[in-house]
Amino acid sequence: MASCTEANNNEQFRSAMKLEQLQTNATVRGIVPDSLVTVVSVQWFGDAALELTYKTAAGKVANELLYRHDEPRLELVEQGRPWSFDGDGALFRLVSEAQRIRLAHLFDPVLAVHTSVVDPLPHQITAVYETMLPRQPLRFLLADDPGAGKTIMAGLLIKELIVRGDLQRCLIVCPGSLAEQWQDELYRRFHLPFDILTNDKLQAALTGNWFLETNLVIARLDKLSRNEDVQQKLQAPDCRWDLVVCDEAHKMSATVFGGETKYTKRYRLGQLLSTLTRHFLLMSATPHNGKEADFQLFMALLDGDRFEGRYRDGVHSADVSDLMRRMVKENLLKFDGTPLFPERIAHTVPYKLSDAETHLYKTVTDYVREEFNRAEALENDKRAGTVGFALTILQRRLASSPEAIYQSLRRRREKLESRLRELEVLHRGGQAAPIIATSLPPLAACRTFPAPDPVMI
What we know:
The chain is of the alpha/beta class. The chain has helices at 2-8, 89-102, 104-107, 111-114, 122-132, 150-163, 179-190, 199-203, 210-213, 221-226, 228-234, 265-275, 292-299, 355-370, 374-379, 383-400, 402-439, 443-447; strands at 13-16, 27-29, 36-45, 49-56, 61-67, 75-78, 139-142, 170-174, 195-196, 216-220, 241-247, 255-257, 260-262, 277-283, 324-325.
């Protein structure tokens, strides 16, 4: 490859030269850095020096004095055959293979699948190659059920974008407990060397901003949301990302309560990340908490214009089919069309309590309704909710086994007895306080006492 390129410029055969070889119209390398010059004329001064007049490729004419010690840096470029085929074959193969890999996605539409250690399922291939890759830029919520392999889909997307030259810098934000799992999966299955953000790496950054030095980063959600210094580094002018992936993205949701919107630090982080990247992918198996207002706030991370404004029931409605995909387990299939997960069949099995079980159930229920948390109910008006919650928990324990309800009631009794003893101690202390106060001398009198002997202390 190198030989062919030089042939086009008539520069194939090079050799070390002597000053005597500098003849008119000769082509020489080494006079001007990274360029060839043509000899116009030569004027000798003795036998060890000469004045060279040359013309550059741009047509500029100049002079230079050359001596014998300049000979090693000069090369005479001779004209050769246009296609000699005597170049380095290994180098030519390397260059051609690099070019083939660069264009491989044009011939293999699922290149990331064939170059990764994965056995993708149909819904994973359609999610990456039919749903996400055609979107430019990608602003999307992947909301498939747990177990669908969202990490595999994200890895395929990242590798495919890298192969196509559309991704160089990628940031993955996930809960702290999943950071190592993400790093292991991406390297083992896709050979993508992601680095996990740590305090040591932030402090050891050569430029002062580790994000600028690292292209593939995994960061913990709370580390970014709670640390303002790290957020300042994220907002550096040159700190842009090609793709940001947020796992368990529902943790970044905001809430509407009593007509007031409460923005969490995690939600503010989501808003920040949305402005720092071209492609933005949210992943969550539970994107909707049952409140449409909260859901539209969450979707505003992807499209702030469409979901702008306070939500009003019956007025606001938005089609999110172009921004999210959700597949439940019942719809996940293998390549042969069989279900990926076994069918779930739920049915109620009635049973009749014995007389002893009925008595125990009634006694526990009466205890909770009338006696449980009485001390707290005297100070708290939210007694109904507390008692209802306690009733539900104890009834679940009772449904488990008599031993489970026995242990729960035993621990509750020990806790109440311990609290009663504390109250008795506080009560006795309150009665003794007036007696102690009357028996002590006034504070002014105490100040007249001589200082104690340091040795005695």
